[in-house]
Specification:
Radius of gyration: 23 Å
Number of helices: 13
CATH topology of the largest domain: BirA Bifunctional Protein, domain 2
Distance between the termini: 40 Å
CATH class of the largest domain: Alpha Beta
Strand order of the largest sheet: 4-16-17-18-20-15-14-7
Strand content: 25-35%
Largest sheet: 8 strands, mixed
Number of domains: 3
CATH superfamily of the largest domain: Bira Bifunctional Protein, Domain 2
Helix content: 25-40%
Number of strands: 20
Structural class: alpha+beta
CATH architecture of the largest domain: 2-Layer Sandwich
Bound molecules: guanosine-5'-monophosphate, zinc ion
Length: about 400
């Protein structure tokens, strides 16, 4: 940030912001205006840190009130009449003693373990890669315990698929688009002559690019549902597993390894009747509880909601909460006094079955659910709790890394 052009805007929210919405609203403010660099939110006050080109004369009164008006729209839409979701805690091991208290980012940087290519885009070094491999092993063992069928899914996802599952309405802010040059010799020639990067990004003739037909995939399990779409579910039930790179644009919320634009997720996916999905989701949770106990991870499993965009937020969150659709595994980050979702247990009811026309033997739409683990996050949370000295680690992890030394 250029200190000369930094500017602060402070005002009271149109309605008081309940404590439980402070984080959700702060993270949405990143998408409200391109000038917003960061925001601080408390129940009675919003502070925006803005950038603006050219310090001369500051920001016009008109522009300031435009930004304030957009922020108030977010506040009203998300906080007015909001009902506090009841947090249900299924497992509480948050207070398990752990040996490390410091912020692992400083050490990761000092060891050249991470190299940042852009905001939210990191390369990971040998230690993180091996830790991820270790945790992958645990998740694959979970998948194997269900006899899950392995799949490999593409990173691209067709726009029309995402449209079919209402993704544009629910999560527009986090979409990542893909295009290519138009199949036109002149356009390709022009691009190759003129394309250049400056501090704003890639500069190229505006008509270089083809219409967007694909996006970068935001989730793993969707691809299975698309593969099963518009037909009866084979055998009436399916259990599958896959690992994949997922993309969720997070604007200025992209900090450290806690939030990445691209991250890796391992999922175990259940497709079948309601009871089949719910029972297996529960079995998966109980099996993972044993793994986390063995490791001594400090964490909690609690009800949660997906980060729906502003317009859909209130309704969808109330719905997810009422039907207990999502539970998150939240690992403690001792240095921050906070928790981080390293995985989730999800039940989608018959949402995908209905929208994608996947039918059970009785002709009704299938139900789906998935358990999903964020691989970068679990490795990061592990280091935040256990640090970098292998003698402080659970024996099992120490042995794994020792055996798999490059
Ligand atoms: P969900 O589908 O519940 O949103 O995501 C499943 C898991 O993927 C999360 O519990 C988390 O571990 C991981 N995940 C989701 N979003 C991000 C992100 O922005 N960055 C990282 N590193 N992991 C994420
Ligand atoms: Zn999923």
């Amino acid at each position: 940030m250029n200190a000369q052009t930094a500017l602060t805007l402070q005002f009271a929210p149109a309605v008081p912001i309940p404590d439980y919405l402070v984080g959700e609203i702060r993270s949405k403010l990143a998408y409200v205006d391109e000038l917003i660099l960061s925001a601080e939110v408390s129940p009675e006050q919003i502070t925006l840190h803005l950038s603006h080109p050219g310090a001369e004369g500051g920001l016009s009164a008109e522009r300031r009130s435009e930004i304030e008006e957009k922020v108030q729209r977010v506040v009203l839409s998300m906080a007015k009449g909001a009902i506090k979701p009841k947090i249900q805690i299924l497992e509480d091991h948050l207070e398990r003693p752990v040996p490390y208290q410091a912020d692992p980012m400083a050490e990761l940087i000092a060891r050249d373990e991470i190299s940042q290519e852009a905001q939210g885009v990191f390369s990971l070094g040998p230690l993180l890669s091996q830790l991820i491999d270790y945790f992958e092993g645990q998740f694959i063992a979970l998948a194997d315990s269900f006899g899950a069928q392995p799949y490999r899914f593409p990173i691209l996802i067709p726009a029309r698929y995402l449209e079919r599952v209402n993704y544009f309405r629910a999560f527009p802010h986090s979409l990542s688009f893909v295009t290519h040059l138009r199949e036109d010799l002149q356009a390709i020639d022009q691009f190759s002559q003129q394309a250049a990067c400056d501090e704003h990004g890639l500069q190229a003739p505006p008509d270089s690019f083809a219409q967007i037909q694909h996006l970068l995939s935001p989730a793993v399990c969707y691809h299975l549902y698309f593969a099963l779409a518009d037909k009866p579910l084979p055998g009436g039930q399916v259990i599958a597993t896959a690992v994949g790179t997922c993309f969720r644009y997070e604007s200025s919320n992209l900090v450290s390894l806690e939030r990445l634009w691209n991250f890796t997720m391992r999922e175990v996916i259940f497709v079948g009747s309601k009871d089949f999905v719910l029972e297996n989701r529960e079995i998966a949770r109980l099996r993972m509880a044993q793994v986390f106990e063995r490791l001594g991870l400090a964490y909690r499993v609690e009800s949660a909601n997906d980060p729906f965009f502003i317009g859909e937020f209130r309704k969808q969150v109330a719905f997810q909460s009422a039907f207990q659709l999502k539970f998150e595994i939240r690992a403690r980050l001792p240095f921050a006094g906070s928790t981080l979702a390293v995985g989730s247990y999800n039940y989608h009811q018959d949402f995908f079955g209905r929208n994608l026309n996947i039918t059970l033997p009785d002709g009704s739409p299938t139900h789906t659910g998935c358990v999903a683990f964020g691989l970068e996050r679990i490795a990061y949370a592990f280091l935040a709790q256990f640090g970098f000295d292998p003698s402080d680690w659970p024996t099992e992890v120490r042995d794994y890394l020792q055996e798999h030394k490059p």
